[in-house]
Amino acid sequence: MNEEIRALEPKPLWNKFADLNAVPRPSKKEERVIEFMKNFGNNLGLETEVDEVGNVIIRKPATPGMENRKVVVLQSHLDMVHQKNNDSDFDFENQGIEMYVDGDWVRAKGTTLGADNGLGVATMMAILESKEIAHPALEALFTIDEETGMTGAMGLRPGVLKGDILLNLDTEEDNEIGIGCAGGVDITATRPYKEEEVPVDTITYKIVVKGLQGGHSGMDIIKGLGNANKFMNRILFGGFENFGMRIAAINGGGLRNAIPRESEAVVVVDKIQKEDFSAEMGKLMQSIQQEYQTLEPKLHMEISETEIPGGVMELWVQELLVKALYAVPNGVYRMSPDIEGLVETSNNLARVSVKNGKIEVLCLTRSSVESSKIDLSNSIRSAFELAGFEVELSGAYPGWAPNMESPILKVLDNLYQEMNSEKAEIAACHAGLECGILGKNYPDMDMISFGPTIRGAHSPDERASISSAQKYWKFVLEVLKNVPEKV
């Protein structure tokens, strides 16, 4: 199946992407891809090392005539977000990604594609392997665990890299040159509850919310897409307020950095309420669908009878839960007053789990302004703590402050205009890039981010543009040719 991908142009890029996508590489379980990359560097006869946390660094000397240019660090992350449709039978830890061509797009069959950041990794591999591409001395930095904590970038020691310029290949619009990004913090709220016996003379229902677009909780948060956890809570709140509905279980969303697409809940209601409950829940679901029919045309919600559960959540804790989830902000919290169209601060209500006497809620709060990040995280923390939850803030990482005077920015800006007869978009993004973290230990390194066009990252709808990859590949090669000379 992936032979169709290998035939695409530029072949060096797509072939390396196909090689990479044959290797399972979930975040925090990158052992196989680390070994794969280590063997790749060693087989090329290049200086290759794996640091204490698992980052792989491969060094390649300058091609003849380029020895007097500044040393360039090429950087991408090895891990990928693993998301699949509920009806997809796929084992991420043991299977390679199954890809296919759909017009101008490369897609995966029912799963994330891994173009984020696999196309950046493949670019670096193709350049390292090539004997024809002109370039200065290179340090290829392949970081781990970018998607679930950025621990690879955080763990990179000062002094390991000697480069003057860092090219981060993790931007998802081919007309954009990234000069800044948001920082983030993980919020985890937990509390126990007692399971009570299912009341007598009740009927059990399974409620399903599915068909939402999902997407990247940073880059796509501005679109105002539906959040399955928020939709489910509206339904549960209505059922509780109007019919005394009891909650037995909730399983909504998944990874912090993915807008949740699906949620399921098991609830019980007095049998005497059966007809009224079904009718009112149907009306509420219809209202939500009408609200989001433009943004979420595939949204599907259903309610059906199911087996009696083992127990239900104690009533007073249930009330605290649904009210806390209602109170927690989700989506855009504040737009940047300085950069038009940029989200400054946001939150993603990513995961809600209720089972076996434990409630767990996961959020990811992002902001390009540290004080605003603290403000929003305190707001969310307060809502949960008032409901009796234990709240942990962890995995905080800094943003990357824009530098409009960056020398390498001027190089890329001029080259883009020469090659495309239009100016590039110089922008900061509302996503976590590793530049901010790396910049703490390498404050004098000149950093920039760019990449090919990718849509639907962090969701099974992820796809990479073939024509954009061709445009991007040519741009990368020209950038390497035009790296400034050492001072």
Automatic annotation (TrEMBL):
From which domain of life does this come?
Answer: Bacteria
Q: Which Pfam families match?
A: M20_dimer, Peptidase_M20
Report if keyword DNA-binding is assigned. no
Q: Where is the Peptidase M20 dimerisation domain?
A: 210-292
Keywords from the named record = Hydrolase
Q: Does the keyword Ligase apply?
A: no
This protein is called what? Aminoacyl-histidine dipeptidase
| Species whose genome carries this gene | Salinimicrobium oceani
